[in-house]
Amino acid sequence: MDAPRSRVALVAAAKLYLGALRQVLRDPRARDPVGLGPLVVAGHRVALRPPRLSDAPLWREIRLRDRQMIESFWVTSPLSWTERHTDVCWVRECLEMRRASRAGRALPLVIEIDGQFAGQCNLERIDMYSRTAEMGIWLDSHASGRGVATAAGALLLDHAFGALALKRVTAPIRMDNVATARGAERLGFRHEGTMSGFLDVGGRVKDHELWAITSKHAPTGGFARALATQHVVAIPARGRRVGPARRERASFRLPRSKAVLVAVGRYYLRPFRRIHLRHALSRQRGAYSRLRLGPSAVSGAQVVLRPPRLSDAAAWREIRLRDRALIEPFWVTSTQSWAHRHTETIWVRECLLMRRAARAGHALPLVIEIDGQFAGQCNLERIDAHSCTAEMGIWLDSKVAHRGVGAAATTLLLEHAFGALRIHRITAPVGKGNVRAAHLMQRVGMKYEATMVSFLDVGGQRSDHDLWAVMSEHYALQPSASPDNRKPRVSTSPGRDLIGGRSEAVT
């Protein structure tokens, strides 16, 4: 792969790779979440704090006791409910949550009532690029119905829209989960639509309602203060002790089990094990670099999807600058000018970030090539291996926009995602007013599901976006969107990834 011959580009590549070293040298505790609260609910002290390994016994006890209330709404697993709630499982989950928190991808918190573990309240899928996140909560049945979940949600939302400066928080809720929907509505969430086949829970793929709240709809003074005004909670004065004294000081005690110690040891020894996996990693990198989807014949031309190259910089810059008027209104806002966002250095950095995301399995960034010439990008982003979902984005050179190239490229990507990658559901956010992108989504078999309020900051303002989606089983029943009405040939070479930033469908 030839790199652009520029000293600036080489410096950009060096800075990116040295970033990993800078991350190691930073204080690992810098990103540890802090406790939130307390609030007083019916005379009890409710607070949020980071999870501890020593929470395992209470977590297991509550989850096993409340199995009938939780399991039908929880992600399906081949393991039994008891096997999913051992000390080892909690330790692994706790350590993974801590890693995600320090990476800025999540904010895992535990609900405490009078100093005792009583559930979890998390922010997941945090995307600081688009300032969005997803909220999830579960609570001990012995504490339900008293406003505890509402108080915990208020504390978390105040932190999300305050310290984290998020613009939008969503909550996917199963359609028959009436109690949770009412709780979300009480906090100010608004129903935006229904997501078909969103998640495999309780042993079956279920539709979920999309609830969301934005910073502009947050109450003045914050959610906790609004609840205090309604006399749902009370905000204690600083320094005042509320509820019974805590019996146990915060600690890092491990559950006493040989299996738990082995799990912890494996987790912390994982970086050293990577030294012995260089050969396997090199083969994985080679597989992605050789990935090729197509060709698909469109109007006498051959459309192919392939990984981006550093040598694409000149063509990428030329097209993006020429088509600025068509792309910029639907692209993520930046403080830099359009010209400064499309330099050789920027492409090198973006290309390397995309490659890193692909190797990590978070995305699948691909370039649209027509007869060997760069003509746009078609990416899978936000790939979630647990829920088997992903998000699609595409932009195309205006010179080939009306020849069916967009439909052919999208079809190639969907075929590969539903086939080799075993993705179950793919979504595409389309900006309001982007008629051509909406038409493309409809042409390839996607269906409109919801309007996401204040979804993304594009074209200089926070704007609404339509949510389009398609599931693998529905896509398989539809005719191909390619001009000759035949399924294009798709390579099954392994390759996964997603771009660092967020894009939408732009054609």
UniProtKB/TrEMBL annotation:
GO terms for cellular component: cytoplasm. Pfam families: Acetyltransf_3. Keywords: Transferase. The keyword Ribosomal protein does not apply. PANTHER family: ACETYLTRANSFERASE, RIBOSOMAL-PROTEIN-SERINE ACETYLTRANSFERASE. It comes from Rhodococcus wratislaviensis NBRC 100605. The keyword Isomerase does not apply. Residues 478-507 are annotated as: Disordered. This is Putative acetyltransferase. SUPFAM superfamilies: Acyl-CoA N-acyltransferases (Nat) (SSF55729). Residues 46-220, 303-477 form the N-acetyltransferase domain. GO terms for molecular function: protein N-terminal-serine acetyltransferase activity; protein-N-terminal-alanine acetyltransferase activity.
